[in-house]
Amino acid sequence: MCKECRKGSYYITTPIYYPSDNLHIGHAYCTTVADCLARFHRDLGEDVFFLTGSDEHGLKIQRKANENGVTPQAYVDKIIANFKLLWRQLNISNDDFIRTSEPRHHKVVQDVLQKIYEQGDIYKKNYKGLYCVPCESYWLERQLVDGKCPDCGRPVEEMEEESYFFKLSKYEDWWLQFIEEHPDFIQPVSRRNEMINFVKQGLEDLCITRTTFDWGIPVPFDKKHVVYVWFDALLNYLTGIKYGTDDAFFHKFWPADLHLVGKEIVRFHTIIWPIMLHAMGVELPKKVYGHGWLIVEGDKMSKSKGNVVDPLALIDEFGADSIRYFLLREINLGSDGNFSRDALINRINADLANDLGNLLHRTVSMINKYHGGIITAAGYSAPIDEELKGLIADTAASYIRYMKGMELNSAIKAVWALISRANKYIDETTPWLLAKDPAQQPRLQTVLYNLAEVLRITAILIEPYIPATSPKIYSQLGLAVPERFLLEEAVFGKLADGTKVGQPQQLYPRIEVTEEGDTLIGGKRYEHKAAPAEKKEEPAFVPEPIKEEITIDDFAKIDLRVATVVAAEKVKKSKKLLKLQVRIGEEERTIVSGIAEHCEPVELIGRNIIVVANLAPAKLFGIESKGMLLAASDGEGNLVLADAPGIKSGSRVK
Ligand code: MSP
To answer: What gap in Å lies between CA 536 and CA 547, rounded to an integer?
Structure first.
């Protein structure tokens, strides 16, 4: 039976992370989003399978293990223990954790490879190419941006090896047609357009085996080779749901409903992965969503800057639910977002300690104080109650709509609008005055019931976001904590008459910040280490090795000129590229350069920069670029253009 016919199952995955190092807050962000969606679908009553894991093979890991003087397996085993600890601490509800070094995965990869090989989609050839080790990707010269990897901006290495190739190019037309027929497959839409442009430039066959290292899955038909890490890794999504070993289980969850990935690996998931599946004769996943990146205090995280945020330390200080709430509330999923300690503390104090914490505390206290701790359903309603009930119904409906549309921050904002309204409702209905007048007893009962209902329904709606908080709310309301916080229960009026509430307890302690920037939370002081700018010595900068010697004649072939920028604009749909109109003496020409993340177009106009004037033209994003500008960059995000202020345009640079 196909999955469409069996309603009620939902399969969601995160990327499987590289265990080259411990995970940071960016990885935690992606997994938290996936967890929130998995929990939401469980709360809808669906049968959910949520998979995460680790991508353990490849040259990067092998090199790391060598640097540490241990075997790759020993190296990854240690790091995986930390991955699992983090997911436990963050309350991640994954149903399995797949490791690509496991035998169950080796078998799937080898079987798939053998099948595709036998059907003629794999061939062998000698390959020489430019390889980016951190991204485990080969690139063509024309795809590089300023000679560097277009994905991560780091230097590429020249590598030569005999390899097997997968015939990606054969499927180019099929892919374009598939994407046209499935407009929702790649999301958000901006990423879909990027991928279409990429494929329209021509798909190259994919090199899928390596011989220069051995930390990988052996190729079944040629044991000298190991499988390319991306070909291996993508198949985890099948291994995780028992592909090839338990058909019933596999078909219950495949095709996957959602592969959630970061924007930089959308290409692998929306081009290579679908083509692999199509070649295997396996149905395609329903959706790939490329989320934005988290930056920290406005800056890209990097080890050398010392600003990599350790999620375990944050959880220890603020608690898992606070971190989860911040990530899910503050960041718009499709866009890049900022993680800042100040913003985190503000959110915890304002939203969790004040809005939600106070609503619960006030409500449970008043039920105890004015009504003997009992919630009574019967009473007397006023028009303001109808408005509140209407808002509850609207909130639950818009919450579900937003969640289904992956607008996680809008969904939780809607819940907070209800919480704020309920706090205002207390001030407007003044239960403390009603309690003084016995004639107002029915009215008091209704007000208290309505408030308890808002809290019960809120507890259901927030469970995917802050799962440790919902049971606390239920307990204080005197309700048994259910196994699942089902959304069908988020309807006004289901709170049983006569429920006896518990004692009010503080849900979230307020966070005080000392002058030194330390935090005081629940009587404990947490030292806040100095801001990254002032801390840690930068590790010594290791420049790229100097290239092989050339003669003065070789150098003389390069015609360097002073060029004046006369116009500059961003290349549409590219984050990295700027299109410059430059004048070299009398001649005007276009140069496309990957400096958009470093320079504003308007700052360039009128500047005299230095360009390689006799470089063969190349097409980038469909624009012909004649020449290349010179810039110094250190691979850490710093870039300065080489320029020649005051020197006439067209002058030679020697
Ligand atoms: N192993 C591959 C994925 C293979 S999936 C078949 C890989 N691993 S990774 O360790 O580099 O993890 C990349 C993913 O981690 C990103 O796609 C993203 O989901 C998450 N993030 C890593 N840094 C991030 C931020 N700074 N911000 C948000 N997410 C980030 O690529």
So the answer is: 32
261 lines ligand 1 (CB under 6 A): yes
Sequence-ordered strand ranges (E) for 271-311: 288-291, 294-296
* Banded model confidence at residue 635, pLDDT cuts 50, 70, 90: low
| Cα 638 to Cα 2, 153, 155, 599, 632, distances in angstroms | 52, 11, 14, 11, 8
CB 383 within 8 A of CB 389: no
Identify the bridge partners of residue 9 per DSSP, sorted by sequence position. Answer: 47
Measured by CA distance, the residue closest to atom 16 of ligand 1 is 262
Domains of the chain (ranges, CATH numbers): 341-528 (1.10.730.10), 552-653 (2.40.50.140)
Q: Encoding tokens for residue 317?
A: 């200080």
Q: Is the bond preceding 504 in cis, omega lying within 30 degrees of 0?
A: no
CA–CA gap between residue 293 and residue 334 (Å, rounded)? 9
230 ligand 1 Cβ < 6 A: no
DSSP character at residue 265: G
Provide the b/e sequence for 606-627 (b: ≥16 CB within 10 Å). ebbbbbebeeeebebbeeebbb
What does the pLDDT look like over 522-578, one tens digit per residue? 888 898 875 554 444 455 667 777 887 888 888 989 999 999 888 888 888 787 888
Give the model confidence (pLDDT) of 413-437 as tens digits: 999 999 999 999 999 999 999 999 9
**Ligand 1, atom nearest to 18 Cα:** 10
Does residue 323's CB lie within 6 angstroms of at least one atom of ligand 1?
no
How many residues are there in the chain?
654
| Structure token digits, residue 387 | 């408005």
Cβ of 414 below 6 Å from ligand 1 = no
For every residue of 163-197, DSSP letters joined together read: EEEE--GGGHHHHHHHHHH-TTSEESHHHHHHHHH
Judge whether residue 312 has pLDDT over 50.
yes
**27 CB near ligand 1 (under 6 Å):** yes
Q: Output the average pLDDT for the chain.
A: 92
pLDDT given for residue 536 in this prediction: 44
Cα–Cα distance, 77 to 189 (Å, whole number): 38
